[in-house]
Amino acid sequence: MNCSDLTFKQILYARLSLFKGISAQLVSKPVTTDTVQNGANASDSSSNKNVDHYYEMLLGLCERLFENEIEQHMFEDQMRAVFGLKVNCFSPH
Fold first, then answer.
1. Cα–Cα distance for residue pair 88/34, rounded to 1 Å
2. Count of helices and strands (H, E) across the chain
3. What pLDDT does 10 receive?
4. Cβ neighbours, 10 Å, residue 30
5. Whole-structure pTM over 0.70, yes or no?
6. Is the per-residue pLDDT at 46 higher than 50?
7. Rounded distance between C-alpha atoms, residue 71 and residue 78, angstroms
8. How far from the centroid of its chain's Cα atoms is residue 27's Cα?
9. Nearest alpha-carbon partner for 61 in 8, 19, 5, 9
10. Quick check: 58 and 19 in contact, CB under 8 A?
């Protein structure tokens, strides 16, 4: 394993950990107009969702991105729709 592999894995782990935390925050908040505007899906109610639901959605989107089933801009749009503006953390900027 070279240094760049290790760095990539560290960055990926940090991002996944961050989004796991955001998932927990989404579950703990009741769905309001502000929540919907900041990224939560209006059709989802927090009472029937849990942290794993959002995290599994994230992993599914990552898999689709890695398999070239969706383009990066579509991935980012879908991430913003679920998680809000913090999605920019996945961009390599």
1. 20
2. 4, 0
3. 86
4. 9
5. no
6. no
7. 11
8. 13
9. 19
10. yes
83 within 8 A of 25, measured Cβ to Cβ: no
CB 83 within 8 A of CB 26: yes
What is the structure's pLDDT at 47? Answer: 44
Rounded distance, CA 87 to CA 71, Å?
Answer: 15
Q: For residue range 61-86, what is the model confidence (pLDDT) as tens digits?
A: 989 999 999 998 998 888 888 887 65
Tokens of 59: 């992993």
What pLDDT, on the 0 to 100 scale, is given for residue 92? Answer: 53
- Nearest CA to 53 out of 22, 14, 89 is that of 22
Q: Domain ranges in the chain?
A: 3-90
Cα distance between the two ends of the chain: 24
**Cα(15)–Cα(83) distance, rounded to whole angstroms?**
13
pLDDT at 29: 74
The model's confidence at residue 4, banded by pLDDT at 50, 70 and 90, is: confident
